[in-house]
User: Fold this.
Amino acid sequence: MNKFIQKVKIDGLWNTTDIEINFNTHHKNNVTALIGKNGSGKSTIIDLIEFSLSDEKNIHNIDKYDFKSIEVTNISGNTTRVAKPNKIETNLENIDEVLKLLDSLRDDIAKNRIGENRNIEEQNLFNKTIKISTFDLEQQDSVPSFMKNSKIKTELDEILYGLITQFKSYHLTLKKEIDKLNREFDEKLKDVENEQIRDFLLQKQEKQEEIEDKKKRFIETIEYFFQNKRLDFDEDNSIVFKVENQRYIEPHQLSSGEKQLLVIFLTLVLNINRPLILLLDEPEISMHVEWQKNLIKKLISLHDDLQLFIVTHSPAIVMSGWKDKVIKLEDLLKVK
Assistant:
C-alpha cells in the first residue's frame, strides 16, 4: 500500500468554503507547495491535515477551527475522515451531561473516529507525519526558574534541544554499528585466503560507507547553508559548530534562521530510515532568500522517501524549478 497523501478535501472551512487539494506525487519530486497571502488560511489547512493524520487527537486542538469535515486519501485510494463534533453549550444545570459527553468524545478521539465509525483496517493508512512550525517565540514561564536550562530561551531552542538529544543517540548507534561491523569482519578475516583479502576489505569499506552515508549527507547539507561554520561533535557526541579563530559555539548561539534549518534537517535525518510526510508551515520565517531558493532541493536530496507539503507566502521557496508544484489557495476556494 502506498501511504503518501494523494488528496485532501475539507468541507465547510470557515463555514463557507469547500476546498480540494490534489498533491503532486512523483516519486523523486513528491513536493506540493500551497501559496497564499498572510491571513488567507494556509496554516489552518496544514493544521487540519496534521490533526487528521495524528495518532493522538485532542478535542481542544480541533475545536478552535471552523470546519465540518476533512478527508485525506492516500495514493492507494484509502481514505480517513474526521468530522468536527457539534459545539457543546455549557451551563451549571447541564454540567454533568457535558462532562459525560466530553468523556465520550475523548474515547472517539482515542479511537481516531471523531463523528464517524471507522474500521480498524483504516488505521495506519499513512506514513509517519511530522509538522514543523518554526516560529522563534519566547519560552513560556511554565517551569520554575531553578529548573530551567540557561541555553533554552525560546520555543525553538526547546525543540532544537530535544532533537539534538535524539541525534546524540542516533550518532552513538552509528558508531556501535561500525564497531560491530569491524568485529565481524575481523573474525571472518581469519578464515579468508590471502587472495580474497582485498575483495573482503572492499566489502567492509562499502558497508561502512553505507552506514555513514546518511550522517555524511546531513553534515554536508548543514555546511552548505552554514558556509562560515563547520559542524562537529563534542566529547559528549553533541552537535557544536567550529567558527573563526578555532572557536566553537553551541546550537543555542545560532541565529533564528540557522536554528530553523537545523530543526528541519535534524527531523529528516532522525526519520531517514522510513517513509516520511513532512508538513512545513512557512519555513521562510527568518530565513535568508538564498536559503529559501535551495531549501526544497536540499530536503529531497537528504531523504530518499519523502513527501513534502509546504505552505508559504514566499515566491523564493519555489523559484528554483518548483513552480509546477505550486497550488494557489485563491484558486481552491469554492464559496458555498
In short: The chain has two domains: 1-127+279-336, 147-273. The first strand starts at residue 5 and ends at 13. The longest helix spans residues 155-189.
